[in-house]
Amino acid sequence: MDIRILDLDGTLPAQPPIARRLAEGKARRHDLTALGPKLRLWSRSRDYDAFADGWRDLAEGSSPTLTLFGSGDFHHLTAAFIEAAAGPLTVVHFDNHPDWCRTFPRRHCGGWVNEALAMPHVRRVITLGPCSEDLVRPDRKGANLAALSEGSLVVLPWRHEPSQIRVPVAAGKGHEVGDGEIRWRNLCAQDWGGVLDDLLSAIPTRRVWITIDKDVLGPDEALTNWDQGELPLACVEAAIRHLARECEIVGADICGDYNPAPYRQPFKSLEAFLDQRDRPRGGDAAAINARTNERLIATFEECFA
Q1: How many other CB atoms are found less than 10 A from the CB of residue 78?
Q2: Which Gene3D superfamilies match (predicted)?
Q3: What is the pLDDT of residue 273?
């Protein structure tokens, strides 16, 4: 497996598990710090396209690739990774947020799933682990409920109460509908082995892309810029192994490192102030995230040994 470190915000190169792999030639660093502020949180089309063009050149002939790229503020870059990957493809997405909103600008970390769903080689996106308020009245927050109804998007929260809605939504693999509510199939109430078997049955393709935002984890296993969920890291590791045995993982990416860098763009500053106030605080973010990155990287290395 080819390991790429996209250095957008300075959070990754000094982490011991990454520094060691860089020194041993087991990973490659790509200095994108000059482009990082333009891409962070959301990006204009010209800046995103500049990144995507560069990524296509990097990704050519180097599959499977594990890419780490810092803060979850950059999660919309995953759409560029997926676009360059071979299909047909199912995206397995671990995140405390469904990232399914219709946003402006379009290239936004809260809406990249819609970009992936629009790609002809992507058959389905399966999102596991959300606990966030994004699922509260989703019809009022620009959620892509049409994809949920059509089945091209499956959302499997770790723990969430039913979501009230005022628009018609069809039942699907991860939810039931009735009395003006989406009733979620909460993963915390199920045996994880059974969850993984059901996950495989929901994947319509041989090829799979895995994307992990560490804000899906609790604050004892990650500290991020965003509000966090409760999915145990051990469940993510078990899912990676299960998918590697039964599917062809064509690539994977990891974000969700903590980096509270100031935003140069005033609208980004305001959005970060409004959306990131409730993030977990306390603890040594760099050490906690490094330990989790080590476990995730090691799990992928084990699967591709």
Answers
A1: 27
A2: Ureohydrolase domain (3.40.800.10)
A3: 56
Taking residue 118's Cβ as centre, other Cβ atoms within 10 Å add up to: 12
How far apart are the two ends of the chain, measured CA to CA in Å? 8
> Mean pLDDT, to the nearest integer, of 186-207?
97
The Cα 283–Cα 219 span in angstroms is 9
Cα–Cα dist 216/113, whole Å:
16
The tally of domains found in the chain comes to 1
Name the phi and psi angles at 54, rounded to 5. Answer: -65, -35
pLDDT digits 0-9 by tens, 104-160: 788 999 999 999 999 999 999 999 999 999 999 999 999 999 999 999 999 999 999
Alpha carbon 290 to chain centroid distance?
Answer: 18
pTM over 0.90? The answer is yes
Query: Is the per-residue pLDDT at 267 higher than 60?
Result: no
Over the range 81-109, which residues count as b (16 or more CB within 10 Å of their CB) and which as e? bbbbbebebbbbbbbbbbbbbebeebbbb
pLDDT tens-place string over residues 40-64: 988 999 999 999 999 988 877 666 8
Range of the domain at 84: 2-303
CATH of the domain at 128: 3.40.800.10
| Cα separation, 253 vs 74, whole angstroms | 11
Cα–Cα distance between 151 and 155 in angstroms, integer? 10
- The label of the residue with tokens 């062809």 reads 248
Residue type, 304: F
Does residue 132 contact residue 96 with C-beta atoms inside 8 Å?
A: yes
Q: What is the pLDDT of residue 58?
A: 84
